[in-house]
Specification:
Elements: H1 19-31, H2 38-63, H3 72-90, H4 100-112, H5 124-140, H6 144-170, H7 179-207, H8 214-236
Helix pairs in contact: 1-2, 1-7, 1-8, 2-7, 3-6, 5-6, 7-8
Length: 261
């Protein structure tokens, strides 16, 4: 009789993963194998190890992307650029109400900064989208000449360059990865997903064998829960980057964890 059931529903399908996040998840699972896993879990772990090796070989040889960039410098740069534009527009408020430049700057401030600089506190992808939207307004409504006059041409040039660099740092405006490399990863990534599901179901069966197995089984499945939670946070932030790892996850190219004897 099964006395320590773990609901298998969340584990019959793998989390949404890319090659690098899949390698990280699999290695995190292998790090958390119960100390006395039993033959079923151990066989599934060996299958998972083989799938990791296969995907890692292809990823290193064909599909491995360049190391991710630190987005923070690009974020700070675009924050400073928009902050300077806002400050220089609002500075015209020292002139009389009927001053034409003050009136134009007030209209531009209202159009581009209806909520002030709040958008600079959003998540990186959301902030980039808001920055892009404002630049589209500038172009579509022909506001560049007024901004060059009231803010300064060099400031607007810096804003445009900062925004472009921000998009590159986020991977939004970079050329997409070559289709050939992605296609090479499809099959080994699918096999890894199946191995993760097989391993998860063996852990669930292991949990049902003894009351003492329930806690280590839940711990063994925790990486899947953490990766799903990370994916939910990305979706809420509007990000499509599947490679972002949860806190504490090993790097995709970390050494393969050793299996229990």
């Amino acid at each position: 009789m099964l006395v320590n059931r773990i609901d298998p529903t969340p584990y019959v399908r793998p989390p949404r993963i890319a090659a690098d996040s899949g390698l990280s998840l699999a290695k995190m699972l292998l790090m958390m194998i119960p100390n006395k896993p039993g033959p079923g879990v151990l066989m599934a772990a060996k299958l998972l190890t083989e799938s990791v090796t296969t995907l890692e070989t292809v990823w290193n040889g064909q599909g491995k992307p360049k190391a991710s960039r630190d987005v923070r410098p690009a974020d700070w740069r675009v924050d400073r650029a928009w902050g300077a534009v806002h400050a220089r527009l609002t500075a015209w408020g020292i002139f009389p109400d009927d001053d034409p430049d003050r009136q134009t700057s007030a209209a531009l401030t209202e159009r581009l900064f209806p909520t002030g600089l709040d958008f600079l506190t959003l998540s990186y992808p959301a902030e980039h989208a808001q920055s892009e939207r404002r630049l589209q307004i500038i172009e579509a409504e022909g506001l560049r000449d007024d901004l060059d006059h009231l803010v300064g041409e060099s400031f607007i040039d810096e804003l445009l360059e900062a925004h472009a660099a921000y998009g590159e740092a986020l991977g939004i405006t970079k050329p997409a990865e070559a289709p050939e490399a992605k296609e090479l990863l499809v099959e080994p990534l699918r096999e890894l997903g199946e191995a993760i599901v097989t391993y998860s179901l063996q852990i669930i069966a292991f949990a049902a064998l003894s009351p003492d197995n329930l806690a280590p089984a839940k711990r063994a499945l925790l990486p899947i829960d953490q990766f799903r939670a990370a994916a939910s946070r990305r979706n809420a932030a509007g990000s499509t980057d599947d490679s972002t790892l949860p806190e504490g996850a090993p790097a995709p190219d970390a050494p393969m964890p050793a299996l229990p004897e």
